[in-house]
Design brief:
The N and C termini lie far apart (48 Å). This protein is 30% helix and 14% strand. It is α/β, with parallel strands linked by helices. The chain folds into 2 domains: 41 residues, no CATH class; 124 residues, 3-Layer(aba) Sandwich (Oxidized Rhodanese, domain 1), CATH 3.40.250. Strand 4, helix 5 and strand 5 form a beta-alpha-beta unit.
């Protein structure tokens, strides 16, 4: 195996900004398919693959839709949930999760936890596993990927809506479909 040794601080690289160097490296990783893609957007996949710990069970949007008995659990802030959420999802939040809302659910029933992109939900999955839930999954790419793939979300009255809370303008870049609400 041949290793290419490049210094990013000398020669022609010296005049290139750090952002462009990072972008170049990311593009190289994408082009070499170093990351197994589980969401539709390659840049989003790369961000998720580096941000998440991947130490919990993860499930793609298609896998989640195929799991018929699963209960969806929203781990976003209440104001995000109130803009839109997955149909029949149970809101528990993140900062101070309301786990009591899950007391009546059989601990062997599959739970699919989601947030905007998957970071907060990953932490809630860890917590629910410690609470004894046996089949808990993090929705990979979160509600953003759910909507990006053309799936419906509903408002508090259960009506289909295009509105999705995009968390903030920085994270909102990953929401490619729907109407962003901040």
């Amino acid at each position: 195996m041949r290793v290419l040794n490049i210094s990013l601080t000398t020669g022609p690289w010296k005049s290139i900004t750090m952002w462009n160097k990072v972008l170049f490296i990311l593009l190289c990783l994408i082009n070499t398919k170093a990351v197994a893609q589980r969401v539709d957007n390659q840049a989003y996949e790369l961000m998720l693959s580096s941000m998440l710990s991947h130490e919990v069970n993860e499930i793609t949007v298609d896998e989640a839709k195929a799991m018929k008995r699963a209960v969806y659990v929203d781990s976003r802030a209440l104001n995000e949930f109130n803009v839109s959420h997955l149909r029949d999802a149970i809101w528990i939040g993140y900062e101070d999760p309301k786990l009591v809302k899950l007391n009546d659910i059989d601990k062997s029933r599959p739970l699919i936890i989601y947030c905007s992109v998957g970071y907060r939900s990953e932490k809630i999955v860890e917590r629910l596993q410690k609470e004894g839930f046996e089949s808990v999954y993090n929705l990979y790419g979160g509600i953003f990927e759910w909507v990006n793939q053309g799936n419906d979300v509903v408002d508090p009255e259960g009506k289909i809506t295009q509105k999705v809370h995009a968390y903030n303008r920085l994270w909102g870049i990953w929401l490619q479909s729907g109407d962003k609400v901040y």
